[in-house]
Design a protein that fits this description.
This protein is of the alpha+beta class. The protein is built from four helices and nine strands; from the N terminus they run H-E-H-H-E-E-E-E-E-E-H-E-E. It folds into two domains: 84 residues, no CATH class; 59 residues. It is 36% helix and 18% strand. The strands form three sheets. The chain has a four-stranded antiparallel sheet, with no helix packed on it. Strands 5-6-7 form a three-stranded antiparallel sheet, with no helix packed on it. A two-stranded antiparallel ribbon has the order 8-9. Helix 2 runs antiparallel to helix 3.
Length: 181
């Protein structure tokens, strides 16, 4: 298998996330303050031992929340953000890049057929690639045609008419598939 640089050597950059730099800065700051907080915890707990128990638990819990949970919450929000997307013009493969918890770049290789667009997008989810939700801003594509192809706007629309008021009396109609226009 070829190294990543050789595989992406001829790829065209079709998307650059403008928030990638900011996401990286915030995650670096959060991880570094968490590491500093973990290193200082023995001193913090030593000072807290002189306080009443309820106050020590409240202050320790508050500090632990920011030390442990802030990087996790930031990762849950930012792990879907696509920082860069490339297209290999020869094979037609897309490569989307996201950040992992420890700020390593993770690549997702896929074709346009591997993309599913959810009917109701979730929080920070534009598309799903092999079941992995990704967040993409449509305005940041260098060529709108790539956006149209990924989001399957070239496919014909299928309208479904759902019968309202299905009761046990007319349940025999529920076996039929919905009508398509």
């Amino acid at each position: 298998m070829k190294p990543e640089r050789e595989r992406n050597a001829g790829a065209d950059v079709i998307y650059v996330g403008t928030l990638a730099r900011h996401v990286r800065i915030v995650k670096v700051f959060s991880l570094s303050t968490s590491v500093a907080g973990i290193c200082l915890q023995p001193f913090i707990y030593q000072k807290l031992s002189a306080l009443p128990v309820i106050l020590a638990v409240a202050v320790g819990g508050f500090a632990s929340f920011f030390i442990y949970l802030t990087p996790v919450l930031l990762h849950l929000i930012s792990k879907r953000y696509v920082t860069e997307m490339t297209l290999d013009p020869v094979s037609g493969d897309y490569t989307a890049t996201t950040y992992t918890f420890f700020l390593r770049k993770k690549t997702h290789r896929f074709t346009a057929d591997d993309v599913t667009v959810p009917n109701v997008p979730g929080l920070f989810t534009s598309i799903r690639v092999h079941g992995v939700p990704l967040f993409i801003d449509r305005d940041l594509f260098t060529d709108p045609q790539h956006f149209v192809q990924l989001f399957k706007y070239t496919n014909p629309l299928e309208w479904e008419i759902v019968s309202e008021g299905v009761t046990p009396d007319n349940a025999k109609d529920s076996d039929k598939p919905p009508k398509k226009l």
